[in-house]
Design brief:
The protein has a domain of 99 residues. The chain is mainly alpha-helical. The longest helix has 45 residues. It starts with 18 loop residues before the first helix and ends in a 5-residue tail after the last helix. The protein has five helices and no strands. This is DUF4381 domain-containing protein. Keywords: Membrane, Transmembrane, Transmembrane helix.
């Protein structure tokens, strides 16, 4: 056997000054993890307000038979204004119906007319006590659910 090779000790990698590279890698991983966490959190936060509106509309739908028109439209208009504020990015709660109507052009075509009709019926029912038919109440509730991303 004449093929004996020298066995040498292991050669160290890096030479002992690895801590700056490891600290940089840890910092990069921390910043990347924070960015992913914030992005996922923002996605959940954007979806959450519409869930609250849909839940409120579900409660209103369940109790609508026992409510008079004034109470029904007070609650419905508040939920619709909240949904419009989320969709259009406006402070709709502080606006009158006349101020809101021009901004409805930011909604999809299938929602503009039903939401405008809902808002047009809500003010007389809420403030003047005008009676609204059962067909209009169910159409307005369906329009509100479509606006909040529920049933269509």
């Amino acid at each position: 056997m004449d093929d004996i090779r020298d066995i040498k000790e292991p050669v160290p990698f890096g030479g002992g000054n690895d801590w700056p590279a490891l600290a940089g890698l840890a910092g990069l991983l921390a910043v990347g993890g924070l960015a992913v966490w914030r992005w996922r959190r923002q996605v959940r936060i954007r979806a959450r307000p519409f869930e609250a509106v849909r839940a409120g509309l579900g409660r209103l739908e369940a109790s609508s038979a026992g409510l008079d028109d004034r109470t029904f439209y007070f609650e419905l208009a508040g939920l619709v204004r909240e949904a419009l504020g989320l969709r259009l990015g406006l402070t709709v709660e502080a606006m009158t119906t006349a101020e809101i109507l021009p901004h409805l052009s930011g909604l999809p075509e299938r929602l503009r007319q039903p939401v405008a009709g809902l808002l047009g019926r809500a003010d007389p029912a809420r403030y003047a006590g005008e009676a609204v038919g059962a067909r209009d109440r169910s159409a307005d509730l369906a329009a509100a659910l479509a606006l909040a991303g529920g049933r269509r």
